[in-house]
Specification:
Blueprint (H helix, E strand, L loop, with lengths): L1 H25 L8 H5 L9 E4 L1 H4 L5 H13 L2 H4 L3 E4 L24 H11 L3 E6 L6 H4 L13 H11 L3 E5 L7 H18 L4 E5 L8 H4 L8 E3 L20 H8 L11 E3 L18 H13 L4 E3 L8 H7 L2 H7 L8 E4 L3 E7 L4 E7 L5 E6 L11 E5 L5 E4 L2 E6 L4 E8 L2
Parallel strand pairs: 1-2, 1-8, 2-3, 3-4, 4-5, 5-6, 6-7
Antiparallel strand pairs: 9-10, 10-11, 11-16, 12-15, 13-14, 13-16
Helix pairs in contact: 4-6, 8-9, 12-14
């Protein structure tokens, strides 16, 4: 009996090894598929900051709007606060490629062409980003919202060469298809990564493996060796909570829970991307949008998670409160800290304490996802600071500073987040 049981166990182990070997073989790793390779050219040394056209305009984009946004990023102070990448999302292209297969801009909406638009953006001290898809159709084309089939499948080298020649600095590459297994996705994203590298132009590479993929491979697979930014969740929407994980757009609190488990993937050159900022974006489909407290949590927790800060509001018409929040220098400094460590949750469920190590000191967030005001008390030892004669504490929202002997306290409203930067005194 013992021999039979042992034999059965050995067979089970052999089967499991074969299964694991098959899974590994399905997604072979290339020679440059490492986080160190993604960061070796200095791209995305800190999480990129910028603006994307989709949430404000969808497919209703044109040359005049993009130029207006470029001007507004400068006039509002957002460029100087760090928002440098202006990314033109889906629907910018002619639905038909040229006779040689080359992509071209929709002539009625971009009569000056993309190279002229890139020059306009660059002349304002900004960097230009553009959207493509590794499928046969882009997201809008797949959904039937835009004609044609101008995805990059079969045109990867050509399309990489085209956008590099135009002067692009950033590519958003969105899978947008229910077809393909994980091996197909990895191969497709690797193909464009290598094509971009071959152009010799430094182009930040941002991918989304989740579009129309039920398994959410952006969350379950580690993409840190294949892209500078990799989407970890489904699309975001301007809401606190939707509960639609695996079935639709997610709210701010939903996404924080997903991204909390993925901190080990993030670092200079390769960042987790929990999607664009919804600050100043109105709610849609009956959703109310974000309250001021929720907007603070959105920015503060994205900073704690070392996330890209890609605004999605219409910056041409934003109010002063939206501008002031998006340009908060203390919060941006947390996001852009060059140590490049994503924050981690160390305590709590409804009221959570997060810690992010910084080059100097730590950032501590008290995130209240509950529906009532809550008090929090922690110590500098609990958040990983060494013993010192005292600590300088700075409230990132107000700029107020004080000294502490080791106690950290905060009262945090519903759906709000306290964000403190704490450094030992010399």
């Amino acid at each position: 009996m013992a021999t039979a049981v042992l034999t059965g166990r050995l067979l089970l182990v052999a089967v499991l090894l074969l299964v694991l070997a098959g899974a590994a073989a399905a997604v072979p790793q290339g020679p440059d598929d490492s986080p160190a390779a993604m960061g070796r050219d200095g791209l995305a040394a800190t999480p990129p900051m910028g603006w994307n056209s989709w949430n404000a305009f969808g497919c209703d984009i044109d040359e005049a709007k993009i130029r207006g946004v470029a001007d507004a990023l400068v006039a509002s102070g957002m460029r100087d606060a760090g928002y440098r990448y202006l990314v033109v999302d889906d629907c910018w292209f002619d639905p038909r490629r040229g006779p040689d297969g080359q992509l071209r801009a929709a002539p009625d909406r971009f009569p000056g062409g993309i190279p002229a638009l890139v020059r306009y953006v660059h002349e304002r001290g900004l960097r230009f980003g553009i959207y493509l898809s590794p499928a046969t159709r882009t997201c809008a084309q797949y959904a039937g919202d835009y004609p044609g089939a101008t995805g990059s499948r079969g045109h990867e080298v050509q399309d990489a060469g085209t956008i590099a020649a135009w002067g692009a600095d950033y590519l958003k590459y969105d899978w947008c298809s229910p077809s393909g297994d994980l091996g197909d996705l990895v191969a497709g994203f690797r193909l464009m990564r290598d094509a971009l590298r071959a152009t010799g132009r430094p182009i930040v590479y941002s991918i989304n493996a989740n579009s129309h993929q039920d398994a959410n491979p952006g969350e379950t697979h580690d993409w840190s060796g294949l892209a500078n930014l990799s989407r970890t969740t489904q699309d975001i929407t301007a809401a606190w909570h939707t509960g639609l994980r695996g079935a639709g757009c997610l709210g701010i609190s939903d996404i924080i829970e997903v991204n909390a488990a993925l901190a080990a993937r993030a670092g200079p050159g390769h960042w987790n991307d929990p999607d664009m900022l919804e600050i100043g974006v109105p709610g849609t489909e009956g959703l109310p949008g974000l309250t001021p407290a929720e907007a603070r949590t959105h920015l503060g927790m994205w900073a704690m998670m070392a996330a890209p800060l890609i605004a999605g509001n219409d910056v041409r018409s934003m109010d002063a409160a939206t501008r002031d929040l998006l340009t908060n220098r203390d919060v941006i400094a947390v996001d852009q800290d060059r140590l490049g460590r994503q924050g981690r949750r160390i305590r709590g469920t409804d009221v959570q304490v997060w810690v992010r190590p910084l080059v100097e000191g730590v950032a501590v967030a008290v995130y209240n996802r509950g529906d009532a005001t809550a008090d929090m008390a922690a110590t500098t030892a609990e958040v990983g600071l060494p013993p010192a004669r005292g600590y300088l504490v700075r409230d990132a929202w107000s700029g107020r500073q004080w000294t502490s002997t080791g106690a950290l306290t905060a009262a945090v409203g519903a759906h709000d987040t306290a964000l403190l930067v704490v450094r030992p005194l010399p």
